[in-house]
């Protein structure tokens, strides 16, 4: 019973659905990429954790759907299986009637798993499941007169279909960014049925493609929250400190009475200001930074309670205020030189079976190792937006952040629809995190081989992110080219994208991949643009914790430690070096890494094993950062 015409219409419908989350952006023509209009999701619900609502975490029942039946029996074409998600079957009543109704995918009686979290870690039989699973959670609610109800998903990897009481509420594509669907008119008194299809499969047009170096991690990986608002509500509020000493930002209302409302903003007890919304419900904020304002720094990460009131609604945030800028080859935090003592991090908690369930204690433990174990002040959150919990903790604990979306290795550079996806992901990330003082760098890509279409794609991303947020710096983790000149090995950045970047960043693995020995690193000559700061966004070598030999054998702890010594010595000869984020804090799951003795499904470049055991190289980097920190500055 295959119906090809119908399948095409589903795909077309999907493409439309992805785009309706954001306004259309122009696609790159040949020649220089145009500056696209900033994209804005329909609803943001900024600071959702502080809003009136209910977490829908807990046990959700589920049903695997390897043949994607739930996506092929819509629009009137009836497959043999009966999906519950749009039929809203009362199974208990059916049973009372004698159990004669036919249906499959019985989500009421299916197995259950803890949500949030990736299914791959929940059941052994789902370890390498890559496809569609339907989840169901029932909750009690009652429509509230004059109030609106929303479901906010912090992340579903990679695509999501959301149904409430059998009716579609929304769809989303992108595994690491939040989305909001309004359910005011779908809720009923009493028990409500929420059904979510989560599809982990990636393809040539997804971001990322299936070619990565991290685990599949499918599912509802971050919290889901039911949020209640007044009919007219504050959807978003943002503030930031500029290098001109002023705090600027905006408040956005949504709803029938969003225009001509007085919005009042208070920054702790230091300052308050008011502004009136325009016809679109937007009020611009501009005030001089109060004299007593304490600047946010990694050493003193001061956060203020920010309260925004308008139209009877209240939005609460915790915000820090700092400036970030570049002066020649220097990075400046609050006008003072900054060296980024960092490390890269995947979103994986400690333990032998991570589920990407980033609770506050889990995130705190990881960030604590960076801040207090390594003496760091910076973390590269690779290769996708990490959980909001992690970002809020970085603000609170004082760790600067590099943020990126998974435009990684390759994507379909020539495809305007893929570019629109990337721009929408960027927008979702920026709107989510722009109130985090910790975030200083937006990266537009990781290790993408240079070509015309690729550079135009990244250039459009760089323009987009600047338009969305002019207050932060733009970077990308670039590939470095190794050449021979006059018998010497020369490392150089040959990439036209540098013109679009404030901060240059390169990943270098000389001494691990490739032919260079560790001793050769001392002779590598780096040719770098002199006018911009450079960050080594990655370098690293695998080591199996506890594996030692008397020599420099690969995969030993000594090799990794010597690799760090040699690379840090090389870095010391780079005149524009402004920071480091070696690869990586801890071992992480990757189906790409199948060495049967040393890896077994884990990338072993961690300075910590998967359970948190420190390898020798941890001490090498910690000593280096301790000395750097003692030299003063941030
Ligand atoms: C890289 C990638 C990172 C990999 C790493 C490796 O350059 O950016 O995602 O995991 O190398 O271990 O090779």
TrEMBL record:
SUPFAM superfamilies per UniProt: (Trans)glycosidases, beta-Galactosidase/glucuronidase domain, Galactose-binding domain-like
Domain Glycoside hydrolase family 2 catalytic: 324-564
One Pfam entry name: Glyco_hydro_2_N
Keyword rRNA processing included in the entry's annotation: no
GO function terms (MF aspect): beta-glucuronidase activity; carbohydrate binding
All copies of domain Glycosyl hydrolases family 2 sugar binding, residue ranges: 119-230
Signal sequence region: 1-21
Biological processes per GO annotation: carbohydrate metabolic process; glucuronoside catabolic process
Keyword vocabulary terms for this entry: Glycosidase, Hydrolase, Signal
PANTHER family: BETA-GLUCURONIDASE
Family that this chain belongs to: Belongs to the glycosyl hydrolase 2 family.
Name of the protein this chain belongs to: Beta-glucuronidase
Annotated organism of origin: Pseudoduganella buxea
UniProt lineage: Bacteria, Pseudomonadati, Pseudomonadota, Betaproteobacteria, Burkholderiales
């Amino acid at each position: 019973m295959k119906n090809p015409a119908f399948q095409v219409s589903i795909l077309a419908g999907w493409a439309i659905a992805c785009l309706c989350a954001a306004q259309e952006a122009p696609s790159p023509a040949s020649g220089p990429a145009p500056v696209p209009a900033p994209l804005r999701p329909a609803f943001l619900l900024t600071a959702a954790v502080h809003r009136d609502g209910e977490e829908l975490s807990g046990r959700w029942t589920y049903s695997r759907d390897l043949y994607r039946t739930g996506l092929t029996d819509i629009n009137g074409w009836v497959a043999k299986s009966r999906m519950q998600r749009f039929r809203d079957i009362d199974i208990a009543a059916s049973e009372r009637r004698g159990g004669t109704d036919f249906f499959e995918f019985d989500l009421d009686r299916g197995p259950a798993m803890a949500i949030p979290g990736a299914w791959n870690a929940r059941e052994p039989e789902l370890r390498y499941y890559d496809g569609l699973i339907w989840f169901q959670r029932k909750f009690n609610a009652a429509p509230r007169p004059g109030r609106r109800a929303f479901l906010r998903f912090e992340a579903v990897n990679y695509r999501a279909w959301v149904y409430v009481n059998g009716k579609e509420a929304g769809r989303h594509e992108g595994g690491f960014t939040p989305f909001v669907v309004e359910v005011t008119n779908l809720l009923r008194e009493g028990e409500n049925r929420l059904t979510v299809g989560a599809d982990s499969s990636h393809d040539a047009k997804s971001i990322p493609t299936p070619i990565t170096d991290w685990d599949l991690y499918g599912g509802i990986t971050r919290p889901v929250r039911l949020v209640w608002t007044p009919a007219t509500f504050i959807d978003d509020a943002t503030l930031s400190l500029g290098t001109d000493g002023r705090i600027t930002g905006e408040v956005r209302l949504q709803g029938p009475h969003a225009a001509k409302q007085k919005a009042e903003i208070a920054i702790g007890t230091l300052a308050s200001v008011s502004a009136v919304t325009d016809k679109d419900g937007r009020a611009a904020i501009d005030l001089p930074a109060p004299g007593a304002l304490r600047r946010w720094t990694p050493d003193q990460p001061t956060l203020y309670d920010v309260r925004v009131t308008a139209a009877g609604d209240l939005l609460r945030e915790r915000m820090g205020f700092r400036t970030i800028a570049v002066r020649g080859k220097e990075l400046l935090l609050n006008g003072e030189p900054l060296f980024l003592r960092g490390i890269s991090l995947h979103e994986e908690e400690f333990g032998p079976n991570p589920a990407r369930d980033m609770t506050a204690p889990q995130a705190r433990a990881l960030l604590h190792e960076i801040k207090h174990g390594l003496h760091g002040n910076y973390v590269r959150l690779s290769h996708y937006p990490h959980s909001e919990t992690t970002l809020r903790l970085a603000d609170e604990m004082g760790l600067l952040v590099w943020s990126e979306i998974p435009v990684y290795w390759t994507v379909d550079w020539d495809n305007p629809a893929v570019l629109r996806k990337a721009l929408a992901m960027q927008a979702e990330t920026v709107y989510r995190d722009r109130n985090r003082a910790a975030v200083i760098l937006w990266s537009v890509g990781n290790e993408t081989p240079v070509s015309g279409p690729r550079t135009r794609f990244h250039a459009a991303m760089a323009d987009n992110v600047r338009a969305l947020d002019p207050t932060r710096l733009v970077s990308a983790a670039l590939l470095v080219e190794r050449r021979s000149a006059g018998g010497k090995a020369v490392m150089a950045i040959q990439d036209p994208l540098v013109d679009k970047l404030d901060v240059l960043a390169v990943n270098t693995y000389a001494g691990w991949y490739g032919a260079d020995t560790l001793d050769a690193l001392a002779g590598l000559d780096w040719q770098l643009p002199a006018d911009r700061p450079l960050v080594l966004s990655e370098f690293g070598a695998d080591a199996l914790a506890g594996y030692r030999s008397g020599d420099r054998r690969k995969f030993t702890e000594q090799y990794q430690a010597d690799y760090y010594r040699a690379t840090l010595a090389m870095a010391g000869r780079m005149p524009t070096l402004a920071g480091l984020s070696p690869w990586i804090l801890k071992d992480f799951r990757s189906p790409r890494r199948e060495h049967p003795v040393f890896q077994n499904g884990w990338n072993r470049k961690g300075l910590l094993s998967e359970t948190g055991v420190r390898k020798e190289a941890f001490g090498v980097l910690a000593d280096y950062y301790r000395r750097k920190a003692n030299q003063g500055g941030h």
